[in-house]
Amino acid sequence: IRQDLSHPCGLELWLSGDQIRKGAALNAIQIAELLVQSGALKSAAMATAQ
Hints:
Shape: rod-shaped
Strand order of the largest sheet: 1-2
Low-confidence stretches: none
Structural class: mainly alpha
Order of helices and strands: EEHH
Oligomer: single chain
Distance between the termini: 60 Å
Mean pLDDT: 78
Largest sheet: 2 strands, antiparallel
Number of strands: 2
Strand content: 5-15%
């Protein structure tokens, strides 16, 4: 946080977050689950049972 030089009563605030990795991991799991449900991909349990 620092003083905003363009406005006498303003503050500058810079934030960063790392939600991309969690989102990408969740997307990968959801895609894999859909592939298993559609039969396009076998789950590990199904593969070892055969």
